[in-house]
Write a structure and sequence with these properties.
Two copies of one chain form a homodimer.
Chain A (H helix, E strand, L loop, with lengths): L2 H9 L4 E2 L2 H5 L13 E5 L4 H14 L3 E4 L17 E5 L6 E5 L4 E5 L4 H9 L3 E2 L12 H6 L7 H4 L6 E7 L5 E4 L12 H5 L8 E8 L1 E2 L3 E9 L2 H15 L3 E8 H10 L13 E9 L6 H14 L5 E4 L3 H19 L8 E3 L5 H15 L4 E7 L4 E7 L7 H6 L1 H14 L15 H6 L3 H14 L15
Parallel strand pairs in A: 2-4, 3-4
Antiparallel strand pairs in A: 1-2, 5-6, 6-10, 7-11, 8-9, 8-10, 12-14, 12-15, 13-14, 13-17, 16-18, 17-18
Helix pairs in contact in A: 1-3, 8-10, 9-11, 12-14
Chain lengths: 471, 471
């Protein structure tokens, strides 16, 4: 019996994909970057089936690659090209198991799409704050396995801060039931946090109990033109002082990034007549009767204008206007898919060092590949920027860009490392950032991670080759 | 050479205590509960010295028991009674290494007393929100190693949520430098969260980079009389709806707990003429110019009176009055030390189940030991109560109480377990709760924890016997 026979007889033929046409979707990610060759794809519909599939693979010595919405940016959900790895898709695990509005918790299968998690919370007048550009496709299991970030981290934290408990299928097919709706529980090691962000290398998340928050249907949203990144950082302090914890998003957008959106995203429109170097999308959020939002935003903008931190500003006057402003930010990622090759980088430093980092990096990149386009945007409040690179519009070529990819990456990563930053702030390591991270990481830290990997996955069959380089 | 000789020659004679008089303070905890016998006490003054001490113990095959402020409630910092374990005190590690007000971070040695951490934040107009009754004695290293809770969890989270990075001496004496001031960093497993709450069984925390928050010097504080625990839970919703994220504390106090304070704490005074069954201390906090606090508190109390959720109320009119109200809550733990034997329990359930839990537990305890006094108080907003037991004032005896301790604990823990709760919400397991927890924990979960322990401490020398029962 091959593992395909085992899986088919245990889960039924409908749960196992083997045809090349069916496998194609699991062989590349949504940006078309990276590629691999699945031995087969297994699509269990319940935790017990995930456990069975993992157990059968474990017994056969076959590696398992968990797959959520396929929207990862570091290759974490792709099999290698050996044709021997089984891709395990969580897409059929899409039950909302329990909604507890009184207790502010929600328990869902791993395959529930993030937008559906948000909708389940909204249906009981609550907020599940995780929000990213891919929320219509990505799954909550993938969000937790990669510790996703997004635009609401500033107020609510990363994905790992939004989870109370997990259910995980372990490397040998046993199930750990850690689905606890408790706010406080000090009974041993925090296994939930260990699985969050481990990218499927320690086990497969099959369900999660999530934290809900009071709904924030009221928003005060502004799109600002800024003279510099320094101004963006200074203005953040001004906004924070006035908005406090109602500050929900503070996103930086470079002119290059805005131009990319204006070129490719239908309906996108520059709110200003003049061109500016930098923009910020600022949003405060609160309860329906929270009448302090608009005055706080106005006061912060007034202070910003007076201190020459803001050059121009437009405040959304309606939900439609708010959406059109958000489109300028949320459209960047999709727009880049239509804009030729894009080398994605996702780095963080302490917030105060951001201006210096960006200035330094720009010079280093120009030295590597003159004319390289910096499509820079990100979550300034978190010290996190997406520093994506594209070929010059006039005369640049994608081939030249790709040929310089390694040197360009080194230029960015070295600048980040010199400032004590992270070369993967929210996208994870997968295979794409794995080696670059290992080269810049204390061997003691790599050793600790390897020890944990060895302890929980002694045969090395859980998403092998991700996060940690092969020895 | 014995390990005492090794330590003395490496760290100097002043760093090693061997005299019985000196060891006494490390042989028992601050409540006088538990007892152990240290082989010696080593007091390093820097990370390199901690590393040397751990390495020497590792080479000698001697167990190491880390010791912070000695205020733990589960015996986690006590050596066993074999006389072979080295207690490693962090008390001389008390440098504030770096304060970064712009970046809202603070880096401190593990031995810095929590009150001094708070003061260092206050000195730059920031808040470090962790706050507990023992803050004048406990150390930040111990707070993180045990994932301390306290009265500000409702707004700011447990200790683990307040830390960005750690420095840890590992079982073999190597140092892991994970002191990163980054808000976002997805480069591998979350080792920081693994060490938080591991009670020194995986390594010794020697320093931490902490998150700071905007200062909240303005408070609106009320002491309320409530008809029932149900009323306390309902009122919490009313307060939350009006105060939002400015709700900083919501503490429940039973009449028994208040009486204990009134009997033993100098200066404590009942704010009301009449006796009531239950009380709550409610506090909103914000910036100096946050003029919404008092109106929000008043509105919540008015709604509470109208819905018969509040029987009486006093709002603090001055900082001194605020302190005198807090004394009634913060004094409980100390008062119990003067009130005869006290069996401490620290449990949590989903908030909505608290009234049912307390009612059920009261009946079960009375059946085990008629007349037993329930000194109940805690953090209602987190679903966490301290359910401490004392002998009846008239006719009860501490001996009878102690004799029934096991059955009383089982009565509480069973009621908690039936509701999916935790038998140690914030005090950790140490040795005191270790076996009771193991008996109620899924073997898969215990196995996972043992695998991690084995991976990071293969010789079992880091605080052995804590958290996990010996095999």
């Amino acid at each position: 019996m091959t593992v395909i026979d085992d899986l088919t007889s245990a889960l039924g033929p409908g749960a196992v994909l083997t045809e090349p046409d069916d496998l194609a979707a699991y062989s590349t990610d949504w940006r078309g970057a990276g590629s691999g060759r699945p031995h087969c794809v297994v699509r269990p519909s319940a935790t017990a089936e995930v456990a069975t599939a993992v157990r059968l693979c474990h017994e056969a010595g076959v590696a398992v690659v968990p797959h959520g919405g396929g929207t990862g940016l570091s290759g974490g959900a792709l099999p290698d090209d050996s044709g021997t790895q089984v891709v395990l898709s969580l897409a059929r695990m899409r039950r909302v198991r329990e909604v507890d509005a009184a207790g502010d918790t929600l328990t869902v299968d791993a395959g529930v799409v993030l937008a559906d998690v948000q909708a389940a919370a909204e249906a009981v007048d609550r907020l599940f704050p995780l929000s990213l550009a891919s929320e219509g496709s990505c799954t909550i299991g993938g969000n937790l396995a990669t510790n996703a970030g997004g635009t609401a981290v500033l107020r609510y934290g990363m994905a790992r801060e939004l989870v109370l408990g997990l259910e995980v299928v372990l490397a040998d097919g046993r199930v750990w039931d850690g689905l606890r709706p408790l706010r406080k529980d000090n009974t041993g090691y925090d296994l939930t946090q260990l699985f969050c962000g481990s990218e499927g290398t320690l086990g497969i998340i099959t369900a999660a109990t999530l934290r809900l928050f009071p709904a924030t249907p009221r928003h005060a949203t502004a799109w600002l033109a800024l003279p510099s990144v320094e101004a963006a950082v200074s203005l953040l302090g001004q906004v924070r002082a006035r908005a406090g914890q109602s500050l929900a998003a503070y996103e930086l957008v470079s002119r290059e990034a805005l131009d990319t959106v204006l070129r490719h995203v239908p309906g996108a429109r520059d709110p200003f007549g003049e061109r500016h170097d930098w923009y910020a999308l600022v949003e405060l959020s609160g309860a329906t009767d929270d009448e302090g939002l608009e005055p706080a935003l106005e006061a912060a903008l007034t202070a910003g204008f007076e201190a020459s931190l803001v050059t121009d500003a437009v405040v959304a006057g309606s939900p439609t206007q708010r959406e059109s402003l958000w489109l300028l930010r949320e459209g960047i990622s999709e727009a880049q898919n239509h804009d030729g090759a894009s080398l994605k980088h996702d780095v963080s430093v302490p917030v105060a060092l951001l201006p210096d980092l960006l200035a330094d990096t720009a010079g280093r990149l120009e030295a590597v590949l003159p004319g390289v386009r910096l499509v820079t945007y990100g979550h300034v409040g978190d010290g996190n920027v997406h520093h994506n690179l594209a070929a010059a519009l006039d005369g640049g070529s994608d081939d030249d860009l790709r040929a310089a990819a390694g040197d360009l990456a080194d230029a960015i990563y070295d600048a980040v490392a010199e400032r004590g930053g992270s070369i993967s702030a929210e996208h994870g390591l997968g295979t794409a950032k794995r080696d670059a991270n290992a080269a810049r990481t204390d061997p003691v830290e790599l050793d600790l991670m390897r020890s944990i990997k060895q302890a929980l996955d002694p045969d090395g069959l859980m998403n092998p080759g991700k996060v940690l380089p092969p020895r």
